[in-house]
Design brief:
alpha/beta, Carbamate kinase, four-stranded parallel β-sheet, four-stranded mixed β-sheet, 8 helices, 40% helix, 16% strand, globular
């Protein structure tokens, strides 16, 4: 969304594409899950009186729009991609097939997972955790607007302090809202580390994968 009130900011989109390309060029296998809140949020629609299931499916379609946007941006700068959707729409993307996704990664393509998990009542956080486990990813990198996990929301509480490292149990006990509980539990039970970092700071992503201290690490 960038500086816009809604929709897709082309400048922000290209910034993200170049950040992802820097990791791709470093030889990493990269899979991407994008939310759709810049276009539509199912939970907010429910508060307005819309049926939750209906709203969630609309939100899934919004993630496909964002996925197509990042796919176009990446391919425009020379990165091979494949877009897989949890909801079949053959004209614009492949259906999600785990073995094909892994093969695309092995062939050096960036794989983008659209439409969440394909199920209502599950967030894109849950979809990211599920897909990461399915493709045997080493880590989930959760890009946000802040540079890690804090004792409170740093955008609202100026006295909030940052955690450098946390265990899953510590995060549970402190009630930190890193991901929704379903996603977080999936990561904990499958021993999948999470790094929360600021996606809007240039070179943060490549610095992170090259081993520099960026964001907050959550692990067992």
């Amino acid at each position: 969304m960038g500086d816009k009130g809604f929709g897709i900011d082309q400048n922000r989109l290209m910034e993200y594409a170049h950040e992802i390309k820097s990791v791709y060029d470093a030889g990493c296998q990269v899979a991407i899950v994008i939310g759709g809140g810049n276009i539509f949020r199912g939970i907010q629609a429910e508060k307005g009186g819309m049926d939750r299931v209906h709203g969630d499916y609309m939100g899934m379609l919004a993630t496909v729009i964002n996925s197509m946007a990042i796919q176009s941006a990446l391919e425009g700068i020379g990165v091979q991609t494949r877009l897989q959707s949890a909801i079949k729409m053959e004209q614009i993307c492949e259906p999600f097939i785990r073995r094909k996704a892994v093969r695309h990664l092995e062939k050096g393509r960036v794989v983008i997972f659209g439409a969440g998990s394909g199920n209502p009542y599950f967030t894109t956080d849950s979809a990211a955790a599920l897909r990461a486990i399915e493709i045997e990813a080493q880590v989930i990198l959760k890009g946000t607007r802040v540079d890690g996990i804090y004792t409170a929301d740093p955008e609202k509480d100026k006295t909030a302090t940052k955690y450098e490292n946390l265990t899953f149990d510590e995060a549970y006990n402190k009630g930190l809202q890193i991901m929704d509980l379903t996603a977080f539990t999936l990561c904990k039970e499958n021993n999948l580390p999470i790094i929360v970092f600021d996606m809007n700071k240039k070179n943060n992503l490549v610095n992170l994968v090259q081993g520099q201290k960026v964001g907050t690490l959550v692990k067992a």
